[in-house]
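Predict the 3D structure for this chain.
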Amino acid sequence: MNTKYDFPDFEEARIVYVRPVAVADLPKDVQGELDGLDEVYAVHSADGERLALVKDRSLAFILARQNDFAPVTVH
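Done. Predicted structure below.
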């Protein structure tokens, strides 16, 4: 069976990865700005660069989509 799938070019898709981050794992100066939260969500580029930290998963996905990125959850 030969099936052809039409996948978009990964660079064109502009994929970003969303993952939970323990506030305790962040630098102390960043922790001080997070008003007692235990966990935040990071948005990372495909090469691993952290682009943003936000307070919840929903906001991470909204932020990504507003900036023409395709968000994917990382476990």
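Residues 14-73 form one domain.
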